[in-house]
Amino acid sequence: MAAIWPPLDQLPRQNASQVKNRWGEVVRQVRQSGSVAITNHANVEMVLLDAATYEQLTTDLQALRSREANVLEELGARFDARLAVLQQEDSAGKLDGLFEARGKQRRRPRAGDSF
């Protein structure tokens, strides 16, 4: 994912007729720049990539999807752990006790050794 892709409007452009009539020239331009925007009536309709660029894009996409799946799995595990705590038998009593205390503590807090 180290490659930085230029914005669409900054890619070299070839219109569809040039691509059709001067294929060899377009291929050289793609090899030189990595990609070329193909236009039709001045509107970019597609981008032509060389094979190495396409492979890099697919590899990067797979890595992103894998990382996203790992993050979602880890978040799901954290959620399940918190939910399990809330579903324990004594959790309702603990929560009621918290509300009844109204911010007051039963015993004074003690400062630790580092205080």
Describe what you observe in this structure.
This protein has 115 residues and is α+β, with helices and mostly antiparallel strands. 56% of the residues lie in helices and 14% in strands. A three-stranded mixed β-sheet has the order 1-2-3. The model has no long low-confidence stretch (mean pLDDT 85). It folds into two domains: 9-49, YefM-like fold, CATH 3.40.1620; 51-102, no CATH class. A hairpin with a 2-residue loop joins strand 2 and strand 3 (43-49). It has four helices and three strands; from the N terminus they run E-H-H-E-E-H-H.
User: Low-confidence segments, ≥5 residues, pLDDT <50?
Assistant: none
Percent of residues in helices: 55-70%
Q: Alpha-carbon distance between the termini?
A: 47 Å
The ordered H/E elements are EHHEEHH
pLDDT averaged residue by residue: 85
| Helix vs. strand class | alpha+beta
Number of strands: 3
What does the overall shape look like?
rod-shaped
Number of helices: 4
Largest sheet, spatial ordering of strands: 1-2-3
Largest sheet: 3 strands, mixed
Radius of gyration: 30 Å
In total, the number of domains comes to 2
Hey, roughly how much beta strand do the residues contain? 5-15%
**Multimeric status of the protein:** single chain
